[in-house]
Write a structure and sequence with these properties.
Radius of gyration: 19 Å
Bound molecules: adenosine-5'-diphosphate, magnesium ion
CATH architecture of the largest domain: 3-Layer(aba) Sandwich
Number of domains: 2
CATH topology of the largest domain: Rossmann fold
CATH superfamily of the largest domain: P-loop containing nucleotide triphosphate hydrolases
Order of helices and strands: EEEHEEHEHHHEHEHEEHH
CATH class of the largest domain: Alpha Beta
Number of helices: 9
Strand order of the largest sheet: 6-7-8-3-9-10
Oligomer: single chain
């Protein structure tokens, strides 16, 4: 347990996290804490280190120093797969869906293996999978698109499908990198609604630039600048912060 910090029941505790690329500290002694059932948004100028923070949490990039605790479990020494197993799902900026498979098939292949309570009873597993696919498809507004190949979906629908592919694994922490980039206004509104609905029993960590969208979803905002926390708090407090206006919102 870190000295001087009273550990309450944070889902995620990032402390003193640093990564240096050839001497350049993209993330520099960063600390922040995410609660259970919280939607946290990370904002900040390009190059602030936002994507790198997600890369560090999901194990794609190894930290130079510092710690990332998820439910008290240290993640910095784990492999990417073990971090997924621990309950963290991460969506990248460009969707990684299978274009020539249907929506149903994309969701089905994302269903976690070896987690079935039905053991060897394949029939029961199949119906459990089908039921879960339907449930998730409905959540991500694709219930009437199940038989469609993914390449025929709109850009926004592809983003939703990928969120669905993560949701079907029932992660405790879902991380999304700029999920509404390129979406229409109505798709953005629906995505905000989606995120507000799925946080029961989980937390979401989102990177976003669209301030209207951020206002619609953020419980708390962390402003990142040069790999460090510049400000943190409610959207109102962050918006009113002169330092934040100077380095980010004023542009
Ligand atoms: P953001 O997502 O906030 O725009 P990034 O996290 O992508 O910023 O990048 C932060 C800084 O770290 C940038 O200057 C970027 O060029 C650098 N960077 C990110 N990943 C690497 C890497 N693998 N190797 C070297 N430099 C990197
Ligand atoms: Mg980025």
């Amino acid at each position: 347990m870190p000295i001087g910090h009273l550990q309450k029941d944070f889902l995620l505790a990032v402390e003193g996290l640093t990564v240096s690329f050839d001497g350049f500290k993209a993330v520099n002694n960063l600390s922040f804490y995410v609660d259970e059932n919280e939607i946290r948004v990370i904002i900040g100028p390009n190059g602030a280190g936002k994507t790198t923070v997600l890369d560090l949490i999901c194990g794609k990039t190894k930290a130079s120093s510092g710690s990332i605790q998820f439910r008290g479990k240290e993640l910095t020494k784990l492999k990417e797969n073990d971090i997924v197993q621990a309950g963290i799902g991460r969506k990248f900026q460009t969707p990684s869906i299978y274009d020539d498979l249907t929506v149903f098939e994309n969701l089905e292949i994302s269903y976690p293996r070896g987690r079935s309570v039905f053991g060897a009873l394949t029939f029961n597993r199949d119906s459990a999978v089908r039921e879960r696919v339907q449930e998730v498809a409905e959540m991500v507004f694709l219930k009437d698109r199940l038989g469609m190949t993914a390449d025929l979906l709109s850009h926004g629908q592809k983003q939703w499908l990928e969120i669905g592919m993560l949701l079907i694994q029932d992660p405790d922490l879902l991380m999304l990198d700029e999920p509404v980039a390129g979406m229409s206004v109505s798709e953005r509104v629906k995505t905000a609604e989606l995120l507000n609905r799925i946080i029961k029993g989980r937390s979401v960590l989102v990177i976003e630039h669209d301030m209207k969208f951020v206002e619609d979803i953020a419980h708390k905002v962390t402003v990142l600048h040069q790999g460090q926390v510049l400000a943190e708090g409610s959207m109102e407090s962050v918006k009113a912060n002169p330092k934040v206006v100077e380095v980010y919102l004023g542009h």
